[in-house]
Fold this protein.
Amino acid sequence: MSSARSALRTLVHAYLAQHPAEHPAAGLAAALDAPVEAAGAAELPAGLTFSAVVIDRHRRVLHLRSRSGGGAGSLPGGRMAPGDATPLATALRELGETTGLRPGDLCLTPQLGGVPIDISTHDGHHVDIGFALHLAHDAASGSAVRPTEVAEVAWRSFDEVASPTLRAKLHGSSLDGRPRPVHASALLHNGAGRYLLQLRDNLPGIWQPGAWGLLGGGREPQDRSLLDTVRRELAEEAPGIGPLDLAPFAVVEVTGADGLCVPVQIYTGRWDGDAGIAGLTEGVLLHWFAPPLLDRLLLTESTRELVFRHAAEQGTEGRTGARSGTASGPGTGTGTGAGARSEAEDGPGTEADDRSGTASGPGTKTGDRPGTAAGTAGAVPPPAPERPASDSLEATIARLARRFTAHHTAQGLSPVEQWTLQVLKISEETGEAAQAVIGARGTNPRKAPVTWDEVHAEVADVVITALVSLKRMRPDDAEQYLRRQLALKAAKFLPGPTTPARSTPVADRPGALP
């Protein structure tokens, strides 16, 4: 079964669930349920058209009157073309060709969503499927008409609609032409300047593939409210987050995968957990980000503006100190600021003097609260931190590397996946060092200035994270390898008789991956 036929079959059965006694829809469903017998047979029944039922804020419906005919006019619509991915796409294309209205000028109705408002027979032989659409903006009703195809665009009251079945459905509905949210998303923050974002799958046909965004989704019939919608979506997509207190924050407009305007209700809530144990079921990963890093990410402008708006209201817009770890577990860096120390000084899992949070969340220690790797039933906790009286730099880096490797291994991550996340962490730390330099130079008027001591702390985080990365990738000879690489650099840039030592190729190391 083709994707167009399958999509149409789903729509017709959804319509029949609401109108089980309608014969045109029942006959169409029977035709779509039957197998397509011979190769080359029509994928869709003959004489099938798709129309746009566009409703404005005065409860009027858009009608067209062509140059070649008179009468009261008709709804914009037509037959499916080869490039139309869905029945709704056909209606939107025909509407654009005849009126100039773009998909972004329209939105689905909260009452019907993408389910047709009417399936009826015209001229005794062909079936038309109508989709109800609201104008997204008042100005759209004045869109220019293409004079080559249409002589007049008329807005007619529900009483003037020609189709008796469509007219009855319009009168029996609460459709008023006003756009309302049909989706809900959660803007989750940790109370210390970090925001939880989801990396979406990079798959064709979904909204914003491969981009970062908020957790959430569309309203379903069982949802009594949009608050129910966002709670259900969180439970489905990241069950480890658990129930949260959520409050309405804003309504934003985004562009859906079909080009339509989609109003989204945004809720805010506070959660300070480890993104790696949220149990993500959709998308690629979850990660905590500070607002200054958003300009380096692929995400919609509306998401970026939401984060900055909330951060400004919370007074955390320029904060770079609170850190909540990597996408799959604790990171190697810690918060910075006046008096802040690196995690190597404090030991893994403890808080620094001026930190807002540790790698597992603000103001907590890994394993001290439900939901962390050590506090979750069935999870394998990382090894307890070793705290000798005195420790060398190499020994501290080794302990950190062992801890994070054990944590990620318990999560089922392969060595290559672990290395990838750790190297990405270097990039995050580098970005925060760059933001600190901008703050120290005072070149961003939106941000409060910082001291060069904070730049030093951020650079130290970059170095520590890089050293831990190398130790995790080369646990047996990281120190020797670093000395060899340093000798190579010294021979290149420093005068003198320094002779670089040969480095051992990765493939020659015992236990190295091919």
